[in-house]
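Practice problem 4.
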């Protein structure tokens, strides 16, 4: 959809990376969730909301390499602790709201109007 709209391929790639990382986090760490995409002519916002156990220490979870993934998940090649940091790195704006027992809501926003390089 973004490609057809003529969005800069580098921005489209960043949206794909964030989508993948947030979806994999839901599969690995939650009991289910939803991914919502809100698209306007100038902005795309991904909302990844899950009904998981929540994150007790968001600061630690945002640290590259920190992971609570099981050994089984790691044996499949996932759970390296880069999902949330990667999603933040490729986003123009990023926020996360989580607490134990509450689940998690992540918002990753992308400026679609500017060319890559002007805001990254």
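Answer key:
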């Amino acid at each position: 959809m973004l490609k057809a709209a003529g969005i800069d391929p580098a921005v489209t790639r960043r949206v794909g990376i964030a989508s993948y990382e947030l979806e994999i986090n839901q599969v690995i760490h939650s009991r289910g969730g939803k991914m919502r995409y809100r698209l306007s002519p100038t902005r795309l916002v991904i909302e990844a909301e899950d009904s998981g156990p929540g994150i007790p220490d968001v600061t630690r979870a945002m640290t590259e390499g920190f992971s609570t993934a099981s050994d089984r998940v790691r044996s499949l090649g996932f759970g390296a602790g880069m999902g949330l940091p990667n999603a933040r790195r490729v986003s123009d704006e990023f926020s996360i709201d989580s607490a134990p027992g509450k689940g998690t809501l992540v918002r990753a926003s992308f400026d679609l109007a500017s060319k890559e390089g002007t805001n990254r």
